[in-house]
Amino acid sequence: MFRHQKELQFEVKVERPDPLFARQVQEVLGGQFGEMTVMMQYLFQGFNCRGDEKYKDMLMDIGTEEIGHVEMLCALISQLLDGAKPEDQEQAAKDPVTAAIMGGINPQHLLVSGLGGLPTSSTGVPWNGSYIVASGNLLADMRSNLHAESQGRLQVARLYHMTQDESVRATLRKMLARDRYHQYQWMAAIQELEEKNGVVVPASFPPEAEQESQPEAYEFWNLSEGEESSEGLWATGSAPDGTGNYVYISNPVAKGQIYSAKIPATELHHDLDHKTFDK
Amino acid sequence: MFRHQKELQFEVKVERPDPLFARQVQEVLGGQFGEMTVMMQYLFQGFNCRGDEKYKDMLMDIGTEEIGHVEMLCALISQLLDGAKPEDQEQAAKDPVTAAIMGGINPQHLLVSGLGGLPTSSTGVPWNGSYIVASGNLLADMRSNLHAESQGRLQVARLYHMTQDESVRATLRKMLARDRYHQYQWMAAIQELEEKNGVVVPASFPPEAEQESQPEAYEFWNLSEGEESSEGLWATGSAPDGTGNYVYISNPVAKGQIYSAKIPATELHHDLDHKTFDK
Amino acid sequence: MFRHQKELQFEVKVERPDPLFARQVQEVLGGQFGEMTVMMQYLFQGFNCRGDEKYKDMLMDIGTEEIGHVEMLCALISQLLDGAKPEDQEQAAKDPVTAAIMGGINPQHLLVSGLGGLPTSSTGVPWNGSYIVASGNLLADMRSNLHAESQGRLQVARLYHMTQDESVRATLRKMLARDRYHQYQWMAAIQELEEKNGVVVPASFPPEAEQESQPEAYEFWNLSEGEESSEGLWATGSAPDGTGNYVYISNPVAKGQIYSAKIPATELHHDLDHKTFDK
Amino acid sequence: MFRHQKELQFEVKVERPDPLFARQVQEVLGGQFGEMTVMMQYLFQGFNCRGDEKYKDMLMDIGTEEIGHVEMLCALISQLLDGAKPEDQEQAAKDPVTAAIMGGINPQHLLVSGLGGLPTSSTGVPWNGSYIVASGNLLADMRSNLHAESQGRLQVARLYHMTQDESVRATLRKMLARDRYHQYQWMAAIQELEEKNGVVVPASFPPEAEQESQPEAYEFWNLSEGEESSEGLWATGSAPDGTGNYVYISNPVAKGQIYSAKIPATELHHDLDHKTFDK
Amino acid sequence: MFRHQKELQFEVKVERPDPLFARQVQEVLGGQFGEMTVMMQYLFQGFNCRGDEKYKDMLMDIGTEEIGHVEMLCALISQLLDGAKPEDQEQAAKDPVTAAIMGGINPQHLLVSGLGGLPTSSTGVPWNGSYIVASGNLLADMRSNLHAESQGRLQVARLYHMTQDESVRATLRKMLARDRYHQYQWMAAIQELEEKNGVVVPASFPPEAEQESQPEAYEFWNLSEGEESSEGLWATGSAPDGTGNYVYISNPVAKGQIYSAKIPATELHHDLDHKTFDK
Amino acid sequence: MFRHQKELQFEVKVERPDPLFARQVQEVLGGQFGEMTVMMQYLFQGFNCRGDEKYKDMLMDIGTEEIGHVEMLCALISQLLDGAKPEDQEQAAKDPVTAAIMGGINPQHLLVSGLGGLPTSSTGVPWNGSYIVASGNLLADMRSNLHAESQGRLQVARLYHMTQDESVRATLRKMLARDRYHQYQWMAAIQELEEKNGVVVPASFPPEAEQESQPEAYEFWNLSEGEESSEGLWATGSAPDGTGNYVYISNPVAKGQIYSAKIPATELHHDLDHKTFDK
């Protein structure tokens, strides 16, 4: 069960409204890597956690914090939109700056939300549940979390340069700091899990090691012209499992058959030779 | 520019058709972490790559391989569906096993694709572009790739237990092996990039270190009851940047204000006090 | 079966084209609460109606009217776009107002529809079937209809302030009038149904009254700090069913257990302790 | 800012697992009217609230409660899936009941979530942000809330008949009770707001009453054959605004023009007469 | 403006309910090529038509007919679901056929629509506006219409084999007949337009013929191994424009450059060399 | 299996960056009829092809070419975005042209992709799998391909007028030429297939010719007022099957029944008469 307190986690102020910037902030609220994503991802991972209380508790801590980040971003967008109103297009047609604002603003901030944050990205696409994952495998999920915080912090950093409003920047700096810590945190969790189970997800497959001990588990297939890709750590040396060495295949040869599919039943109406229809 | 050769990368055969399993295989073809996702993600990252040819070439190698994995999964689904046809419901009503198959099959395998693979998940949701990311930041993107291969291999491993068809299992083992190698590969790339730029994404923010050197970059906020979360590596010790030590805050206090939003212009029709409307 | 006549339901004219406004009008055509929504919602409710001809006939009356509203909005957008053409960006770069128009216009009005209305919102998101509901319960559905007309009229009212084109405003006033009437209409239907079956949806659950006569049916849980919420009609007095009195719980206590999920089968590869895998 | 406590709001138990029912419960978790919808809708309305603290506080109370309902449903689905595992299809082919379960289960419960709740509907469609609304107009939004609770309780009531597991039913009864109270609550809020501002949304349009005092605000247009629709409260008597009487128009006549759109610029390539192209 | 009459266009009856078949019929109601698609596509094309009344009138005729087809399919699904109810899972567990039905039924037919047609496909994905197109170019759109009727009739034909209910089949035969006629109709319209403007869409580009008279307009690039593709009509002979002859390029050579993208501004945080950040 | 070579198929250059145009180019990359659509459509049709190697090989040739077109468009967008960076809004507020650019640019080109192409349309909607079809019926699919190339070339032609950058126009001309050839190609394939099997899809239904030889297969129903539609080729003469003559029905009469749906089981809670509930 959850409880809410009135104070925001961090102060959220603006020096002056900026409806164009409000549109862009939507990306880190309701976009692919916005706060709605990390909030829902950590909550679902926490709700679904099976068996290790330490991780479950940690996921619930962070998931609960992220609900408050959605709250903060709504407070930010709300202030950036303060005073905006449905403008007269005719007046805009005479004043280029007004015109630009009318052209660049998210129309749903006026028409749909009445100056509030929307559960959508900066282009107005609604947030959806396929942005998140809770797989039941902790290592897989912590890697998803690290990727989400990395993409999220990258976007906030880019956003930071789009404004010179020092109050807004102060809020963004708090978010950058939290995203930094959350990257540390998932890295620490990943380190723990990799030390316990090894680096491959899932660790528990295959039951018999030989099932998968095939050359393909160590080969780089050079399917794009040029061999610059041979210069990376992935191209030489031994794999973390200690049982294989990387092989760089400069000229890979396909190992499969040429596949020709069967003619289907006539009821599927492929019409390759419809004379034979005799149902 | 691309070219196609007729042989599949690996052999794809089935011992016998299994239309229910065909429905489940769709998850690793057109689901959130299916082969369409890694194919499109690596291709877009490669197409958009700015400045380091080694990584661009490597992304194009793997992206090109993944197109062939989509091809292989279509060949697999195609064979699992061989011989299926629009069944008579009346007959199904008498034969429970037929009924179960009719109930459990993906109806679009009959009605829409005529026994072919679909660009959809196991529940029939179309693949979409928000499954992928190509951010322009290599470390962020390699972490996304590692997460995608981890989730993807996990799903193939689960799928493996749903069939006892040894030919199908042989194909799945090849995919498990490639997913294993691809995890190694992204880990190696991540290691290279972290050694060069540090572990936080993005590395280049802030320009002046002090902008972000705040306590919030090292604090764990215990917002869910219970302190099991204090037992992880993230709760004590120093951060990888060497400039901060983790602090576990058992009883966090909100630092922000209580925010009250302003009354909007009357043209927005919030109707809080509509008497004042005087446009 | 349906028939079409050539006249629009109401006159639709513009004094002059305004492609930016055309983009915004899309919200009330193909957005969440646009005319496509009420059209499809009422038609599906009418098509699926089981058992009361009066309501079925009424739904078909209004649903049929709304098809004509979609037609009217296409005629409006079409005229707002008259004369627009793919502009020269270079010229726009010199003329700020042209630049603003090119920046603010919906690019699909030029590229995709060739100056016609689109089945999308003001941000270009395609209309979809999850905007509507036809549940088979008349009271639930009439409440959905009242909510849709309320949101819809609110958006048209906001849109009204975005233009000073008197011809456009005349059309919008007709739509406001119809949305006013339709609010009256659904309120009247709701009143009839509530008088017959009571105010709770569904009325027919539970069969035995005691199944649900629990304290939870009358309690307000104050889970957000502050007790301003105790001042509403919902906090004191008796419920409309006459069998319970509202209780405002200032300090609610959770009644459930602390839930710990079971460890899953090893075939799910949670990897909590993968040593035990023995399939 | 939010906090989480370990106890669930109400007890959530099952007598025995039931993976088919787990699939159906997804509807009230991540479907159009599931708990994710009311949670996000009330939170966004609360976050965006401008100006009346009583309503803001109330929205935050209920929104916070609903996060806990999402938690409860995940705990329910988790228990319904306990013990499930990727089944052998071959065995299923011999045992019709197993086959039916394998056919009827949501494959993503095994493949994607590893026996956890998903942010999707009963057919596997991801939850998305266009299920919710926070418009800034309190009366419009409270009507949306009443409709959501009505549809939601209807679905829970239908779900109740799909199981005879008494522990599951006990949980569902708690949810029915809360949905009952929440319907009362929104009705009470609507009553307050209607008494203050009148029944039409928005109340503040138009500024001058005459703008909209048109016959169209009181007319029923009988556009579907048959006059059964004349028997409702909406067809006779006076409107709640006291300024108009309902008129039932048996044979409505269109009032608009026959609209013919203009030929577009040749750069749009309508090709009606492409000879005239002379750019 | 539209009107509705009570009779269905054609008789719609069933001999007995069949809830599994109801799920499959959804494909031709709310799927990619269902009746909602042709209805909305023809209506939008008609609403947006600029300049040729014959085609506009024809589009409105067919679009209006298709609204009635949506109505018919709802009547069909409604009857196929007659008598269904939320089943007891426990009973299903004992009776395999009931279990199969419970597993194979669309759960939303019970939970969401209460035994009515849904605006979704056979896998439950909501219909959306990106299924349709109204481009303003008549030839392009008539080709879209021909493709939609071809895919649509194919699906109805496959559906036909899934039932032996003679009443259902009678209705499907009417739909097959109409889809046959509509294919003829769009072919006739295409023939008219091609005779007037030529076969390439758009006809009006380029203004000066030489702009595009390049070898690439007549070349087949053999980018997949094997030359079976050289045997078609597209590989030899002259193009319909009479100005070029097809060329089959067995070994195509890329004509473009090797593209290397520029290093972006540091504010984009690509981190390729973040030392240089100096904002 | 696929291979990649470094050269682009055609040269892709720009004279100067143009971030607004980059947004519009997205339509032909990731929109409904963009290159992602034809790429995925042809590949899936090729992968799923059953039985005629000539068509399979041809589909693989073109599908493989289209992957290279996606690559080219990413290279184009990349160059149009060169040098763009997160702008200072304050500065934009003073300079109208900058303001217009900031308003008109796709914010995700800065925030999400870091100056790269996105898998989305010009309005930012992610590409999705329901844009494509691979039905297993060659004639149906070739018609889909012809429609896709027609819509696609139309959009490129419109785009051409939005820029005067001669380098960009040179690239677009290559695409127009390929789209021209691909229209020829699908027309040639259609001609072959129609000559073999007749013009109706599917050809193989019904088994007995009389099943469908009904008047409805030749009738035009004039359901929209006015008889302009009687002037087309579809209104008179004989059908291509030689067995029927078109009939123009000026005043069509509905042939179906007035359908009244049955009252459902009480467990569905329609509440029409909830007193009878007695479970």
UniProtKB/TrEMBL annotation, chains A, B, C, D, E, F:
SUPFAM superfamilies: Ferritin-like
UniProt cross-references to Pfam families, sorted A to Z: Mn_catalase
TM regions (residue ranges): none
Family: Belongs to the manganese catalase family.
Name of the protein in its database record: Manganese catalase family protein
UniProt organism field: Paenibacillus ottowii
